[in-house]
Give the backbone structure.
Amino acid sequence: GTRFFRVVPNFMVQFGLNGDPEVNKVWRDAKIQDDPVKESNKRGYVTFATAGPGTRTTQIFINFVDRNTFLDGQGFSPFGRIVDGMDVVDKINSENGERPNQGRVQMEGNAYLEKDFPTLDFIKKATIVSGAK
């Protein structure tokens, strides 16, 4: 049920805020340590979103294009890559762009998103495949 709340065509799609405000409350201040940038922000790479060094939480984005390599020097470190299904990522609804308010998503969860942005796409199931090439 996690919504894709920020979709910027030709850039990236962002998600990672839980639909349950109580879950967000637990993770809001649980900062995840930054990783060194070892891969580049190219199409299909999955990266933690940040508001600067030492601010990672649960928010993640998927790069739509190869030209996001400018993010590498800003410390955005990819930690995974979409190996199958990038065509599905390309179809994520972008009509709401960056309009959903992240603070409200954290505080109100899916109740806010379903009411004000009912057409957002969301995750039904995700699988992590270790060692995929």
Observations:
- The beta strands are 6-8, 12-15, 45-48, 60-63, 78-81.
- The mean pLDDT is 93.
- The radius of gyration is 14 Å.
- The longest helix spans residues 21-27.
